[in-house]
Every structure is written in C-alpha cells, then in structure tokens.
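On to our target:
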Amino acid sequence: MDKLFKKKLFSPYLVSFLSVSIVSILCLFIRNSIDYRIVGYILLVLVSILAIFFKIKPVLLAAVLSSLALDFLFINPYYTLHIDNAEDAFLLVMFFIIALINAVLTNKLRIMQRKIQEEETRAKTLKLYNTLLDSLSHELRTPIAAILGSIDILQQKEVNLSTETQFKLHSEIEKATMKLNYQVENLLNMSRLESGYMQPKFDWCDITEIIHNVCHRLSEETSEHRIKFFIEDNLPLFKLDYGLFEQVIYNLVYNCSQHTPKGATIEIQVKYDVDIDSHIYLIKKCLITISDDGYGFPVDEIDRAFDKFYRFKNSKTGGTGLGLSIVKGFVEAQNGTINLTNNENGGATFKLSFNVDCLPINSLKNE
C-alpha cells in the first residue's frame, strides 16, 4: 500500500502539474516587475527540463498547463483566457508550438540515446561472450581432452602399462583436473563479483602459511622457475578472508608462472607497516609485493591488465582474461588496493596493500 502511495505521489503527471503551478505562483509575486515574455521563457525552460526526465505525455501536459498559466495569469486581461491583441495571441500560439516541438524532439532524442546505449551494450556483451567462448573452447577443451585420453589408455585391458606409465597418466589426469578446476573457479568467482554477492569473512590469517601453501599447490607450474621469499620474521596475524586472499596469491603466482620464460625468478615479499593519518590514527598495513624478471606487460596495454576478459594482443593462445580482474575484485573486497608496474630491468611487479587489524604472534604465547 505504501509503495502504491509513493508511486502515485511521484507520478510524472503530478510532478509536471506541481512544477508548472509552483513556477507560476512564484512568478505571480513579481508579475508587476517583469515582462510576461520573460515568464514565457521561464516556463519554456521548465518544459525543456521536464522533457529530459519524463516521457512525452507528462511533458505535453506541462506544455498545455504552461500555455494556460501564461494566458490566464500573465497576459492582459488577467484571470481570463481572452486576449485583446493579435500580437499576444500569436505569442501564446508560438509559445505552445515551441514547447510542443521541444518536448517531442527531446523525447525522440532520449529514445535515440536509449537505443544507442542498448545497441552498444548488446555489442559489448556479444564481444565479451565471443571472447569468453573462444577462450573457454580452448581452456576447457584441453584439460578435458587430456583427462579423457589418459582414462581411455588406462581402461584398455589389452595394453600392459608399466607402473611408471600409469603414474604419469594419473599425474596428467590430476594436472588437467587442477587446471579445469582453476578455470571453473575463476568463472564462479567472476559471477560472485558481478552479482555483488561478495561478503568477505574476516578472520585471523597466517600470511606466511597461505603463501607457502599456494606455492606448494603450484609446484608443478613453477617447477622450472625460481621462487624467492622475502617475508619479515614474526609477522602478526592479519584479519583477512582466508579463501579470497589465497585465491589472490594463487592467481598472481600462476600468472607469473604462465607469462615468464623458463628459469625466470618470482619474488614474493611480505611486510608489516604502520602509517599515521591526518587525525593521528595508526593505520596498520599488510604490504605484499609479487614480482618477476620476465617480459613485463605491454606499455600501451598495462592499464587494461585488470579488465574483465581482456587478453593482451601478443599473449600466447589460451586464457580467459579473468585471473587479474578477479584479483582486483577480491583485493578491493578486503579493503585493499593493487598496483601493477613494469620493472626497469624487465618483468613486472604487483603491489598489494591491505588496511587490516593485526594480532602479534607474541600475544598468543601465553594462551
């Protein structure tokens, strides 16, 4: 009932009526000080403003009411629709025609803009859909083909497979399954970000443990890379979302492993810092830097690194372009920021900063 009342209260027709009435009453107080033609201009501007926000019918109502108000209140003789001279009659007719044309043209312009926006949105959606479909057709097909191929070989009874061969096939299945799971997780995570259903569950996290767990999970992908850790001793526990933070580190390290040459070095640095703001409040920060000495990012495209579905022009085949956009979304969901720069000597650096609560490990010794 309340919603229905509010809908009627803010009806475009009612707003048009009230707008013309209020402006007319205000002008009535200074009727003797200004020319009635100026009042006509004011009412014409009012109709133009209403045409920006409302559809054609409420605007037409405003145009008719404005013409009647101009004639009844401001053109001599007052308080009658009678007009003494042809000049005023012509002025009133022209006022109504201009207001009408203005309303119609503005309405058509709004319709055209809406159609253009819809077409642009449709084209953008189609482009994203084609990009995603093209990426997934490769990214999902490859691990699925590896899984099916390995299972097919293992199921062939007439072929005697050695223990080593069986182990390799099982390893291939595991690797392909992990890759498939990574792509599906990225899609699900992006859906969560897009829907706005992202509610971090903050709890005390051991950052060092999370980073080492992620690197262990990616040991296969980073087997031909060197990973160096620069983690401060006695780091406090930070209040973050364990799952989101783990996914952030996973995506960044995985991205470094996939876009750097064999033998490249990946450095992971974690620091704890305290800032003092203008109100002399202590701001506790968890600072994480992940860098590599690979190829870096194209200078003219680096600003689009975190765009959804964006893949660099010279990037290798594959990839959905979701990994880094998910990283940005997950970092911001935890009150953090992320920055990407190219290194002077090659490679790229991701800098993450989280404003967090912290709990010194020393305080847990007596518990």
Remarks:
- Residues 140-195 form one domain.
- The chain has ten helices and eight strands.
- The chain has three domains: 2-113, 140-195, 202-364.
